[in-house]
């Protein structure tokens, strides 16, 4: 009975994510209670994802890892540097919105990217590889961006935050891979559906905690909140759509998971290195960013699966 319930949740996963968004808005006190547990919830999500995929599928072959490295460098280094060059070339001011875009482009994948691939019916392993490898190389890829933007604060704080996240990812993924390899080498379809149901629940709970700044922002300045909400959708969905169009034109087999990662990044990593003057508007953006992220399986389904 319990397994059937989880399978039902997995089949209707996109609605579970929407319920999480609504709960984040309607239950601000619960969001505040859950916020300190975000690291543990993220680790649980990574554990479930690694267990569901398995070590063999996640690692792939040497060619997969090489392609993943190139993709991660393009996403986390090439794109933010290109954006900064564009600002410099056109003489555009470095506004809080520009700061948000740079941080998003320089960050690795969010932990839920592989789960979004699953909900859209596509292979999650490329997204998981990008998450692990992208986080591992962040201490290298963020250096040029931090050097060009002294406003970002201390490089050491960012490197420490990236290192802590990498440790969490590696431990959670290793535990998930170990349990799958030694305990459940062949996962049945029913078991896979049950794990998918658990990940939907985990994602829905995590988003409640991440939206703790939305209700106070709405009470303080609804117009500012609307601006950041529109910006979040434009940046997130814009990056996904552009990446998907380009990758499909080249016949890339992993176009969907890579496109999902291109728009869904863990830019909150950089917040530890920013001054309070910079982070105040960006905290609102972080909350707004959850809407396009969690609505990706619903609103972009027609793009990723046009049948």
Automatic annotation (TrEMBL):
UniProt superkingdom: Bacteria
Record's InterPro entries?
A: Na+/solute_symporter_sf
**What sections of the protein cross the membrane?**
12-31, 37-55, 67-91, 97-118, 130-149, 161-182, 194-214, 226-247, 267-292
**Keywords for the protein's UniProt record, in alphabetical order:** Membrane, Transmembrane, Transmembrane helix
Q: Which stretch is the leader sequence? A: none
Q: What is this protein called?
A: Sodium Bile acid symporter family protein
């Amino acid at each position: 009975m319990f397994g059937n319930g989880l399978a039902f949740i997995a089949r209707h996963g996109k609605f579970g994510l929407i319920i999480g968004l609504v709960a984040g808005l309607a239950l601000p006190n619960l969001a505040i209670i859950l916020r300190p547990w975000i690291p543990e919830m993220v680790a649980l999500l990574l554990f479930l994802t690694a267990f569901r995929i398995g070590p063999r599928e996640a690692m792939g072959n040497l060619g997969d890892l090489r392609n993943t490295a190139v993709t991660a460098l393009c996403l986390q280094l090439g794109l933010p540097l290109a954006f900064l060059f564009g600002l410099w070339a056109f003489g555009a001011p470095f506004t809080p919105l520009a700061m948000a875009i740079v941080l998003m482009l320089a960050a690795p994948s969010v932990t839920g990217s592989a789960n979004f691939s699953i909900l859209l019916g596509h292979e999650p392993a490329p997204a998981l590889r990008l998450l692990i490898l992208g986080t591992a190389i962040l201490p290298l890829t963020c250096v040029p961006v931090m050097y060009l933007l002294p406003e970002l604060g201390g490089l050491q704080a960012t490197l420490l935050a990236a290192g802590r996240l990498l440790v969490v990812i590696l431990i959670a993924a290793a535990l998930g891979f170990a349990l799958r390899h030694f305990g459940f080498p062949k996962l049945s379809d029913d078991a896979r559906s049950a794990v998918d149901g658990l990940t939907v629940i985990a994602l829905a709970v995590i988003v409640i905690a991440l939206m703790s700044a939305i209700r106070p922002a709405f009470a303080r300045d609804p117009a500012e909140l609307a601006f950041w909400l529109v910006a979040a959708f434009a940046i997130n969905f814009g990056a996904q759509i552009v990446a998907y169009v380009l990758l499909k034109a080249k016949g890339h087999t992993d176009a969907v998971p890579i496109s999902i990662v291109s728009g869904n990044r863990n830019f909150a990593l950089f917040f530890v290195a920013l001054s309070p003057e910079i982070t105040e508007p960006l905290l609102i953006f972080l909350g707004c960013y959850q809407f396009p992220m969690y609505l990706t399986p619903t609103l972009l389904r027609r793009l990723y699966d046009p049948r």
